[in-house]
Write a structure and sequence with these properties.
Layout: E1 41-48, E2 51-57, E3 63-70, H1 71-75
Antiparallel strand pairs: 1-2, 2-3
């Protein structure tokens, strides 16, 4: 399954209020999806050079591997790798 990482064009009040639960530099980063979304939470953690790095966690609060998206992927409308193609 391929997930698209395109932040919704919504006012802040309509975005999910879940925060990244893992300790570290991204602790407390807010989910970038609309409130009441289906599926995992994700938040943009780093933008540098030719990629974006997202932190991902489940609705239950379990932290998942980070996901990288290259700018080339974004140009094709696909801004996240397929499931299983995460950074290690």
């Amino acid at each position: 399954m391929s997930a698209r990482r395109v932040a919704p064009d919504l006012p802040d009040g309509e975005l999910c209020s879940a925060t990244y639960p893992a300790h570290g530099p991204n602790y407390g980063a807010m989910c970038n999806q609309a409130e009441h979304h289906v599926g995992n939470h994700w938040a943009l953690a780093v933008v540098a050079g030719t990629y974006r790095l997202y932190v991902v966690w489940t609705l239950a609060g379990d932290v998942l591997p980070d996901e990288e998206a290259s700018l080339a992927d974004q140009a094709q409308g696909q801004t996240s790798p397929s499931e299983g193609d995460c950074l290690t």
